[in-house]
Amino acid sequence: PYATITFIDPDGVLYFFPRSVEKMPPPPTEVLPHPRGVDVEQVRRIISETKTRDMVSFLRTHFHRVGKKTAEKFLDEIGISRDKDPRELKPDEIVTLVRKMKTYKEFLPPDAKCLSPLGEELLEAGIRKELNPDFVKVVQRPPSSYGGHPFIVEVGIAYGGGVPRSEEIILYRFANKIPLLFDEYKDVSAKVIRSIKWSRYRIKPGMPIAIFVHLVSTNIPFKTAGKEFIADRPELEVEIRRGILECARALMRYIQRKERVAREKQRLSIYEKFLPLIVRDITILAGEEKEPDYTVLLEKYKMITEEEIAGGEGAMEEEFEEGEVVPSLEELEEEGVAVEMDLTVEGEDAAEEVTEERFVEGETVPELETHLEQYGVPEDSEIPLTDNPGSALEVKPAEASHKKVVRKKAEKEKVKEEGSSSSKAKRSSSKSGGRAKPARKSDKKKESEAKE
DNA sequence: AAGCTGACGCTTCCTACAAG
DNA sequence: CTTGTAGGAAGCGTCAGCTT
Question: A244-248, A288-292, A376-380 — which is least confidently predicted?
């Protein structure tokens, strides 16, 4: 996004990509090599050039994140004298030194300031410019490292708008700001995406979703000389996974909000249709002569709904919470009109409760239908009566409660599966057999140990 | 003159804890 | 079970002054 690119192809067609931001990503700074990331040849070269005369200062001055303490500890462990002149190391000693450097656990991880990530702002600008989606969430993971090479993973997710629809989630990969074009399905990112249980994030196949994965590192572990796909190093995999899941959580909130807005709209149209009729009936039943003025209420509700819609389309970050939206209904109830109207049911659980009750009594449904007929609504009309028409009207009375139980069970199992699969991913080689039980046991063990 | 040492500031790690 | 956060501790990087 920070570069202007002009390109004329062999047919003379001009491609012009103007820059969309003025801010440049921070330039990388030069750093020493990390002890875990050097090879024998490199160490030999450093020794030939070094001016240090003992091993401790040799390690300190030529390697990244090695200080006095670490150097001394390391030398003691591998059995090389602290005072040894590095120039006197024999070839086989250099080889063992390098080997131990790679395996020694207590080197601090490399600093990531030598990397130049795009940054969340620029990545988002780039995505918006190219796809113009409805929703973008960008995450920059904190720096991490593998084998002495620092890396930063940046992930973006785009939804709707100009994102093309496809059965598969569209994946864009970048390595040190260079797009990778081929062998997409062999890449770690593709592997991670396949392993994620998207249904848990309310994402179904066919939704217009694009995922951007940008890996920034001093050494990108390409699997082949073609430099087209990134090898699945576990450290990378974990970071990419976390990034994508973080984006997915944000996208889920966005989708939930959109669904809720749609529900509110639908609900409003129902109010507009039936409120006058209900008020008329209630007036007659109460023996009053004058109908109360319900238009004020309706306007109020309309306003709240519109606010909701505006908020949903515009700046929709995580600044909204469950329940924040619904007080409108409580207000309605307080004013004594909306009370006990089935249409005011909130959320899925509540919808089920009410539905169940209704069916237990066994009479409400036909009654409702006669009501509709009375007001000139045909029996097979498609007007949805609750925000969840499937569960409310199509379920037969006898099955209503049963269905509820089944659903909850299914949900539980979903959660279980998700949990076990993620732990599998982390340990990579755990048994698939024993599920929650062993874990619980060890918890209890821990508890008892703590008590002791 | 070159390399070593020590002080200070800053970053990172570790641990406990809370929330989802 | 995972992730994020806060507070304290440890260790690195840098620079100036000292030693060989």
Answer: A376-380
CA–C1' A110–B11 (A) = 12
Bases of chain B with protein Cβ within 7 A: 2-5, 11-13
A51 touches strand B (CB under 7 A): yes
Which nucleotide is closest to the Cα of A67 by its C1'?
C12
Cβ-based burial of A186 (10 A; exposed 0-12, middle 13-18, buried ≥19):
middle
Determine the 3-state secondary structure of A412 from DSSP.
helix
Which residues in window 136-165 of A are less than 7 A from strand B by Cβ?
143
Q: Which amino acid appears at position A145 of this protein?
A: S
Hey, is A17 helix, strand or coil?
Answer: strand
Domain A35-103 of CATH type 1.10.8.50: yes
pTM (2 d.p.): 0.59
Task: Using the structure, give the distance in angstroms from the CA atom of A304 to the C1' atom of B15, rounded to a whole number.
Answer: 46
CATH number of A112-252: 3.30.230.10
Question: What nucleotide is nearest A439 when CA is compared to C1'?
Answer: C1
Coil, strand or helix: which one is A174? strand
Q: Which bases along strand C come within 7 Å of a protein CB atom?
A: 1-4, 10-13
Amino acid at A170: I
Taking only the tens place, the pLDDT of each residue in A89-131 is: 888 888 888 888 877 777 777 777 777 778 778 888 888 888 8
For A164-215, what is each residue's pLDDT tens digit? 888 778 888 888 888 888 877 788 888 888 877 777 777 777 778 888 888 8
* φ/ψ of residue A4, rounded to 5: -100, 130
**CA A49 from chain center: how many Å?**
48
**Strand C interface, protein residues by Cβ within 7 Å:** A 32, 60, 64-71, 108, 111, 241-242, 245-246, 419, 422-423, 426, 439, 443
Q: CA–CA separation, A341 vs A349, rounded Å?
A: 16
Handedness of CA A351, A353, A358, A362 (dihedral sign): positive
Report CA-CA distances (Å) from A197 to A79, A192, A204, A376. Answer: 49, 10, 10, 46
Helix (H, G, I), strand (E, B) or coil at A409: helix
Q: Show me where the domains of chain A are located.
A: 35-103, 112-252, 253-400, 405-451
CA–CA separation, A255 and A203 (whole Å) = 9
β-strand partners of A209? A159
Strand B closer than 7 A to residue A61 Cβ? yes
